[in-house]
């Protein structure tokens, strides 16, 4: 994690998490991959809901836990929303179209929940969003870039004044 950019922001409500996510939407383009990490109920799907709404998706965005993949095609950019929680073996990734989506062969943006379960199958270039919660329900949203495109994406997102992301340096906020 020493390489790359890292930014954080705290949100206090699900709506604030969605609003933060919405500020990312204008900068997304086909082929972008966002890995979402966090405990059950941390707000990963809420993050996708915020982006989807900002991209103009009219469909109700829900967690794809039981479907593994849900797709939303009615917005500015199609969205692939994976939830790998129920998968046990890396071989199962092939069956659900994971590699086609994360290797840039797709015309949409891809969000992957629980991608950290398969560290050897992560793409080379992705934006990692980690969401943690405290006992009061406040969320800490941490964004870290892996790869050239992810660095570009995080840089422009962080420079959007509406995102209010704060740069981390050496484990502390700058």
Describe the structure in your own words.
The structure is a single chain. The protein has 174 residues and is an alpha/beta fold. It has a single domain, classed as 3-Layer(aba) Sandwich (Rossmann fold), CATH 3.40.50.300. Helix content is 24%, strand content 27%. It is built from five helices and nine strands, in the order E-H-E-H-E-E-H-H-E-E-E-H-E-E. It has helices at 14-24, 44-54, 92-95, 98-102, 148-158, and strands at 6-11, 33-37, 69-72, 79-83, 109-113, 126-133, 139-146, 166-169, 172-173. The protein has a nine-stranded mixed sheet. Strand 8 (166-169) and strand 9 form a beta hairpin. Helix 1 packs across helix 2. The longest helix is centred in the first third of the chain and has 11 residues, at 14-24. The two termini are 17 Å apart.
What is this entry, summarized?
24% of the residues lie in helices and 27% in strands. With 174 residues, the protein is of the alpha/beta class.
The proportion of residues forming helix, as a percent range, comes to 10-25%
Widest sheet: strand ordering: 3-4-5-2-6-7-1-8-9
CATH superfamily: P-loop containing nucleotide triphosphate hydrolases
Strand content: 25-35%
Under the CATH scheme, which class? Answer: Alpha Beta
Mean pLDDT: 91
- Structural class computed from helices and strand pairing: alpha/beta
CATH topology: Rossmann fold
């Amino acid at each position: 994690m020493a390489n790359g950019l890292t930014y954080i922001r705290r949100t206090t409500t699900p709506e604030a998490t969605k609003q933060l996510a919405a500020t990312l939407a204008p900068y997304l383009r086909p082929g972008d991959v966002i890995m979402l990490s966090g405990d059950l109920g941390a707000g990963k799907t809420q993050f996708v809901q915020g982006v989807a709404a900002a991209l103009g998706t009219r469909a109700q965005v829900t967690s794809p836990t039981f479907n593994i993949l849900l797709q939303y095609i009615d917005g500015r950019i199609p969205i692939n929303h994976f939830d790998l929680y129920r998968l046990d073996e890396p071989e199962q990734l092939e069956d659900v179209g994971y590699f086609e989506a994360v290797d840039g062969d797709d015309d949409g943006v891809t969000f992957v929940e629980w991608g950290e379960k398969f560290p050897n199958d992560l793409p080379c270039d992705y934006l990692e969003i980690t969401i943690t919660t405290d006992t009061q329900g406040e969320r800490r949203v941490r964004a870290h870039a892996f790869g050239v495109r992810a660095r570009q994406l995080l840089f422009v997102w962080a420079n959007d004044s509406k995102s209010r992301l704060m740069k981390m340096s050496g484990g502390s906020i700058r």
